[in-house]
Amino acid sequence: MLIKNETNPLYDKINVLSKRVKSLESYIASLEKLMQILMHQEDTKEDSMRTREGQPVIFQEITVEKLFMDKYEQTNNLGQVGIKELSGHLNIGATYEKGLIPSELIEEWKTDLNQMKEEQKEQKEDQDEHFHNDNQCSEREKDHIVSDENTS
């Protein structure tokens, strides 16, 4: 009886630890099931993505407001593209309508033109000043020459 009384606390601890181990084992089992479910879902997603890649993409409507081209080549492959409806404006040659050139580009051109005018104006003023200085020197030289002739 004495041994039984001394070993009872140890049996109780062993029982508690055994219950913990069982609960952890069940928790790990549930995590493994969840992981299998998630892996299965991921596989089905990949399969669905593969099947979607093989299907063509169909656009019902595309709207292009403005189109600016740097270079135009006259090759027509529109017959190969399935177009149900094509609307808009295509200007070939000279067009004299407002709104064809973007306002930002017009403003940039205006500022560039004004800068060029200012530079030309400054160059002309520099040339006029240089010419005026040259003329003053030549008149002084003339006066000096005339005064030398008078003294001789």
Structure description:
The longest helix has 53 residues, at 2-54. This protein has two domains: 1-55; 101-152. The chain contains two helices and no strands. The model has no long low-confidence stretch (mean pLDDT 79). The chain has 152 residues and is an all-alpha fold.
Which short descriptors sum up this protein?
152 residues, mainly alpha, 2 domains, 2 helices, 67% helix, 0% strand, elongated
| CA-based gyration radius | 47 Å
Q: Tell me the number of strands.
A: 0
Domain tally? 2
Query: Outline, from the CA principal axes?
Result: elongated
**Percentage of residues in helical conformation:** 55-70%
Global mean pLDDT = 79
Helix run count: 2
Compressed to H and E, one letter per element, the order equals HH
Largest sheet: none
Proportion of β residues? under 5%
The termini sit apart by 157 Å
Helices and strands: which structural class? mainly alpha
Q: pLDDT under 50 segments (min length 5)?
A: none
Write the layout of secondary structure elements.
Elements: H1 2-54, H2 103-151
Short description, anyone?
By secondary structure, this protein is mainly alpha-helical. It has 2 domains: 1-55; 101-152. It is 67% helix and 0% strand.
